[in-house]
Every structure is written in structure tokens, then in C-alpha cells.
Amino acid sequence: MTRKLLGIDLGGTTVKFGVLTLDGEVQEKWAIETNVLDGGKHIVPDIIASLKHRLEMYGLTKDNFVGIGMGSPGAVDRDSNTVTGAFNLNWKGTQEVGSVIEKELGIPFAIDNDANVAALGERWVGAGENNPDVVFMTLGTGVGGGIIADGNLIHGVAGAGGEIGHIIVEPQNGFLCTCGSYGCLETVASATGVVKVARLLAESYEGDSPIKAAIDNGDTVTSKDIFMAAESGDAFADSVVEKVSYYLGLASANISNILNPDSVVIGGGVSAAGEFLRSRIEKYFMTFTFPQVKQSTKVKIAELGNDAGIIGAASLARQFIAE
Amino acid sequence: MTRKLLGIDLGGTTVKFGVLTLDGEVQEKWAIETNVLDGGKHIVPDIIASLKHRLEMYGLTKDNFVGIGMGSPGAVDRDSNTVTGAFNLNWKGTQEVGSVIEKELGIPFAIDNDANVAALGERWVGAGENNPDVVFMTLGTGVGGGIIADGNLIHGVAGAGGEIGHIIVEPQNGFLCTCGSYGCLETVASATGVVKVARLLAESYEGDSPIKAAIDNGDTVTSKDIFMAAESGDAFADSVVEKVSYYLGLASANISNILNPDSVVIGGGVSAAGEFLRSRIEKYFMTFTFPQVKQSTKVKIAELGNDAGIIGAASLARQFIAE
């Protein structure tokens, strides 16, 4: 009997599930809504019910699975398989997750932080090409990330390893970040950060630009609007993308000057701009790296999209293969 | 019979040796001059002769040793135990090191880069307190370093991991670095970098200062002179130390925002300034880190001095304990 992996990507809006081969191929996937009502107390039971239902539907039992892996927002305790608080799930205190799922399903369980898990996915079967040294950066509502160095996910002493969004890229006149520092990457490269950069540059831009006009007008302008305008030749929008690319290139370079990974993989909504964004980040990356890093570390765009979470989550369960 | 470790710290001026317990206690240590003549061809034979002589003197045989570990300057190939070029040893092509020593001594051998090895030493029995996540930064003629993350030394894809001296701390108006980039930490925090910062600040400083006068006079001023003057109350020298501390604090913060180590340990000649320097670095570290890192990552001064090399080298040999 060929054994499989189960991956769960728990998010604030949906829970995604995947049944994967041991090589990381997604054989089945589905999703349910995340019910965050009543302090998030329905989430774990909903996951268990969905898993039981689907396994029965597919004619699979616990013996078909090596293990279950899960990515969760919030603060994850990997030793006890609990989540000790997750704002967007309404989980306030310590939430039993692994022990309950393991008991109900009878399959070994492992958990990690959602950004780390997405990094594992991109590293395993995505842009990272299964290299032992891969840095993943995700540009969305915030800027998150995960670092795999010498084959290990780097958690750090308090689990804050890989918090790439809080690298300082503007130490002197930066925007205030939600973390309390000024000049964090997140303040200039998240979806809202891109708009902040646009607002700042709009103050001194003197040419014609529909995007600048919209900003000055108080209209809602998104990072997507800005990237699309830049690609269509709006010079103001282009200057915004250039500045954001400078920050991303500087951050990617400093990470690489420290860790010399095989690649820095850029994912998340903002990365939908693809090669248009990547090539500009690379330009600044080349400005700020030293020769050995220039020659060996690559800047890439993520390949797995939304599947990175279930794939990376499933990869956590590979630790149970030998058992 | 209690078994021991042998550590060798190969440098451009001396080769240091140590016999250590498995717990990292130095029982014997000695040093020989490094003979770099004739393309450095005497170095390995000299090391072997010295080892044989001392082991006989101490009444020790190969059976007393678990293994030999060595730190070397230059580009180290850990798989083949060779050094593929080391400028300050006059080694140009690939130099057989491990195979020759292993054959002559009959003891298993391991090698790594000298800065990495010093990091291992400080992590093991120095300021790092054997924590699995320690970053070591050495401020000397250059700025080097080593990173231990989740218990592993980080080498990166081309062996350039831990090159902390090339983090960019002044992206806009930095000094040119030997690596070709502008604004690397090494250009402002190495022994010569501190003097460069002093020269720049001297241009606009208007008060009285013997150090500023010496710089304007074209006298030789060292980083040590500047730190001593600052500690004695020279306001100009103090402003130089403040600026250097800002750069070191920013670099330490960005490393920690990425890796969340237990500690950033600062060693090398410039770190002789001790708490005077550490407390100022910490001030800027606290400015540029996010709350979880502020609360969990510490800035420390190295404790082992010159012994970090032999101790870290010896720690490489601990991989042979199980054999």
C-alpha cells in the first residue's frame, strides 16, 4: 500500500486540505470555511469532521497515512502541538489542536507557523527546488517569511525566526510599523505599504498620472492598481514600483549576505506582478550583495500559489516516515 | 581511558594548538609560527611535526583522541578536508590538509572556515552558553562572523554564509568596500572602518578634540585611540563611537529580526572596548528590533579571546564521538 501525507493550511477565512504523495504531489484537495465564532471553538471540530468525511469518501483509512501536518496563524508551540493565541482565529488562550486531531483520526500530527509552512512548500516542490538553503518572503497584507538553512527551518530562540517583514530598510525616516519600530520592510512592501510609498512620492511628483490624481483625490488605490499602472507606462506608478523594488532588493541582499541561500523566493499577492517585479528586485539585489553571493544566490518568484500551504504542511508529516 | 579532542587554529602569523576534554576544557595549549614561504608548502608538515612532538611529550597516542578539528583562513572544502585557496597563507591552488594529517596521525579530521570555527567556540563554552541559536561577529582588520541556527553552522550554498561584514548598513552614501559594494558593515566597524567614520565626522566637527586634531594633522590614529579617547571624555571621539555603535546595532538588529538568535556575540580587537561599546550597540539594537526579538535576543561581548579558535576547532571533532 502506497502511503500518503495529509496537509492542512488553516487560515482566517478558509481551511485548505490536501492529500499528497510522499513526493509532494497533490492528489486531492478541498477547503472549508473557517468558523471563527464563539472564540474559534468550532475550528478544530470542523477540521476533524471534514477529514473524517473526506477520508470515508475517498475510501482511505488511517493506515493510508504517514502523518498529518498543519500550518496555523498565530504563535505555535511545536512541542505540544498547540496554538498559544491567534488573533484572526479568535483564539485567545492555548488551543489544543494536535492532541485532539491525533486522538480522533489516529494519525501522527505535526504543526508549525503558516509562513514557515508556506516556505517549506516552496522549498520542497516549488521555486526552491528542494535545495537545503532557501529563504521565502511573502508579500501580502503583511510581509512574512520563512528560512530554511542547511536543511532546517529556522525558528530562533523565541520562535520569531523568519520574521522578514521586520528587517529595517529605512532606518532614518521610515514609516511607523505595527511592531513599534520605524522603517520595517512591511511598512513599504506589504499591500498597504506599497500604497504608503505611493502617497509619500505623490507629494513631490509633478508629472501627470492617473494614479497620482486618484491618490490626491482621496480615491481608494490598491497596490494592484499601482503595479498595473506601472506596467501600462504610468511614470509615477513606475517610480513607486522602483522604490518598493529598492527596499525588497536591499532586504533580499542583506538576508543573502548573512545566509547565502540558493534562492530568495518571493510569494504572496504583491508577487503576482511576476517578472516585472522580480527583475527590478534583482537589480538592487545585485547592487547590495558581495561577489560570492551575487554568483550563487538567485531571486525567484514563488511557483505554488495558494497550494504552498497544504504542500508545506504535508511536508511536516514526512518526519513520521521512518516510524 | 578519558578521550580528548585536538583543536588547531591556523592563522597567517601563528598556528595555535589545544588539547581539550570532551566538555571543551583546554588542558594543554601551544603555538608555532606559520611559515608561509615557498607557497605555504611547509605549513602542513610543520603542523604534523608539532603534533607528533607534543603528543609524545604528553605521553598521548592516537587512541587518546576522538578527532582533530581545524579552523583555516580562505575557502575551505569541508567534504574533501582541503583548502582551495588562502591568500594570507600563500596557498593558491587546492591544498591537501585533512588527508595528510589523518594519514600521519591516524586520527579522524574535520575542518571549517576560521570565523565559523571561532563562532562555534564562543557558542560552545563562551558567551553563547551552548545555545542552539548564536550569531558571532568579529570586529578586527575586517568584520567576519559565523551563524549557528537551530544547532547548525550556516554555510550557505557557496560557503559564504555568516559573512556578516557585508551586511549593508549605509545604502545611500556608504564607503566603498573591498567587496565592491558601498556601505558594508566592514567599512564602518572594522579597525580601519572606525577610523574612516572618524575622518568623515571630523569634517564637520567644530569643538576641541585631540583626536580630531590628530586626524586633521595627518597623524596615525587607530580605532583603539578613538575608543580610549571616547572613554576619557573626548566628545568628538564619543560621537565616532556613537555612530559605529549605531551601525553595529542596526546590523545586529537586522540579523536578529531574521534569525531571532539567543545572542549576538561581539568579539575581535574592537570589542576590547567591552561594556562601553556593548551598551551602546544594545541601545540601537533595541531601537531596530521588534518586541519578540527585544525580549529574547541578547547582545553580548565574547568571552574566549584568542582561545575561541582552538576551542571551536576542537568542537568540530565531536562529530566523531559516536564512531
UniProtKB/TrEMBL annotation, chains A, B:
Signal peptide: none
Family: Belongs to the ROK (NagC/XylR) family.
Assigned EC number: 2.7.1.2
First-tier enzyme category under EC: transferase
MF (Gene Ontology): ATP binding; glucokinase activity
Protein name (record): Glucokinase
NCBIfam families: ROK_glcA_fam
Keyword Nucleotide-binding: yes
GO CC terms of this entry: cytoplasm
GO BP annotations, alphabetical order: glycolytic process
Lineage, uppermost ranks: Bacteria, Bacillati, Bacillota, Bacilli, Lactobacillales
UniProt cross-references to PANTHER family, sorted A to Z: BIFUNCTIONAL UDP-N-ACETYLGLUCOSAMINE 2-EPIMERASE_N-ACETYLMANNOSAMINE KINASE, ROK (REPRESSOR, ORF, KINASE) FAMILY
Origin species: Streptococcus phocae
Keywords: ATP-binding, Kinase, Nucleotide-binding, Transferase
The organism's place on the tree of life at top rank: Bacteria
UniProt keyword ATP-binding, yes or no: yes
